[in-house]
Amino acid sequence: MIRNLHLVVFLAVIQLLSVACRAQVPGCPDALANNYDPSATVNDGSCTYYPISVSPVSTSILSDDLAETSGLILWDGYVWTHNDSEDTRLYGLDTVNADIMLDYDLKGVVNTDWEEISLDDEYIYLGDFGNNVSGNRTDLHLLRIEKGSLKSGSPVIDTIWFSYSDQVDFEPKEANETDFDCEALIVSEDSIYLFTKQWVSVQTSLYVLPKIPGTFTAKKRATYNIQGLITGATYLESSDLLVLCGYTSLVYPFFYLLYDFGGHDFFSGNKRRVTVSLPFHQVEGIATNDGLKYYVSNERLVVQPVANNPQKLHIFDLSEMLHEYLDLIGGQGIDRVGGIMIYPNPANNVITLKISGDQRFSTFKVIDQAARVVMEGVLPHETSNIDISHLSPGYYSVRLSEQKELNIPFLKL
In terms of CATH architecture, what is 53-328? Predict the structure, then answer.
């Protein structure tokens, strides 16, 4: 009897492992890729794409006050930007004609080289981390500005000081001869991420910082051969979508679309380069609210006799490249619990768990409303499918409990 029981348990385990393994098919799940694999259930970052270029749907000349526009955010009904030296004002622009509608003066601070701006629910973050002159700044920092105080006219500003974890040489370099320049910043729910502008290697490195005031070491997470100079970033955390902007050594701008990645491992999913049909435009800032419509700025660039391009604000429509992905994500019904994404919810036959790269769970249990374990299995990847087709309709939860216990509710239709 005991021997038979052991056999039954063994066969059940084998069946669970088999189901889990069959559900995980690494490959390229993006239908727009030239190596699309319709059977792929796990995005292994292998998607490749045919070359594509885009042109702006509209362009506006910016005020001469913004000749060195450097970063962009969308907030409070305006496009906000700033200059990259001396000027300590933030400018709110009309979203249609780019006229300056209002400005806030950040009195008491210095603009050494403001290169990027980002925001979360409470704060605006300004990156004073431009470092291309000699590559040896020791005063790199971000200003954290409380939104409510900014609007009241008495801005409360904290400082986040940092140094790069792998920069050991502080001997001055020639201008534009460093890999420790930075012009791109995003803010997640719990961290700040920097993307460097590497003049020598023409790559970008990803560094992470906490969101609190103090002095920190920016920890290096990854390096990617972007084949260009990164100057701006915009991020939709709920959609796992990050778009970088930059330009080549010949000042030909491009976008880099990063999406369907795991956690904050931004280079693990789809990576699509898009050429921007604006030669000799020094693109500096990028912002979006919906992942389809993008505001992009360029600073004034005069290179006689080939270019004399004033500062501008452009609007781009990237629907052709991103609407299917965003429709899929938005239409599935996505819930997040403790950094874990579950979708679709409600679900018919399969649910997907997407686990942040900062967390580790290798097994799961499905619990019904009577607190009974009705399923259990393994999670071999950061993104794992669970077949729930055999479950009766009703409310359940997925229980993960290796580092900490998480119960993620879902509805089986």
Answer: 5 Propeller (2.115)
In the CATH scheme, what architecture does the domain 15-46+333-412 have?
Sandwich (2.60)
pLDDT value for 21: 42
Tell me how far apart the alpha carbons of residues 29 and 341 are, in angstroms, rounded to a whole number: 18
Give phi and psi for 130, each to the nearest 5. -60, 135
Helix ranges restricted to H, 333-413 = none
CB 374 within 8 A of CB 366: yes
pLDDT value of residue 324 = 86
- DSSP H helix total and E strand total for the chain: 3, 33
| Cα–Cα distance measured from residue 379 to residue 250, given in angstroms and rounded to the nearest whole number | 46
- What tokens were used for 84? 């990259």
Sorted by where each begins, the domain ranges of the chain are 15-46+333-412, 53-328
CA dist 303 and 312 (Å) reads 16
204 neighbors 198 (Cβ within 8 angstroms): yes
Per the listing, tokens 């290796």 go with 402
CB atoms within 10 A of CB 400: 24
pTM over 0.85: no
Cα(75)–Cα(99) distance, integer angstroms: 15
59-73, 139-153, 348-362, 370-384 — which is least confidently predicted? 348-362
Q: What share of the chain is helix, strand, coil (3-state, %, to 5)?
A: 10, 45, 40
- pLDDT: is 238 or 333 the higher one? 238
The residue ranges of DSSP E strands in 356-404, in sequence order, are 363-368, 373-378, 383-387, 394-400
* Neighbouring-strand partners of residue 253: 247
* HSE-CB of 220 using CA atoms within 13 angstroms: 13
pLDDT at 20 over 60: no
Q: What is the three-class DSSP state of 411?
A: strand
The torsion angles phi and psi of 358, rounded to 5 degrees, stand at -85, -5
At 343, which helix (H) or strand (E)? Answer: strand 340-343
- Angle formed at CA 19 by CA 17 and CA 25, multiple of 5 degrees: 100
**Average pLDDT over all residues of the chain:** 90
pLDDT category, 14, cuts 50, 70, 90? very low
**Residue range 111-138, pLDDT digits in tens:** 999 999 999 999 999 999 999 999 999 9
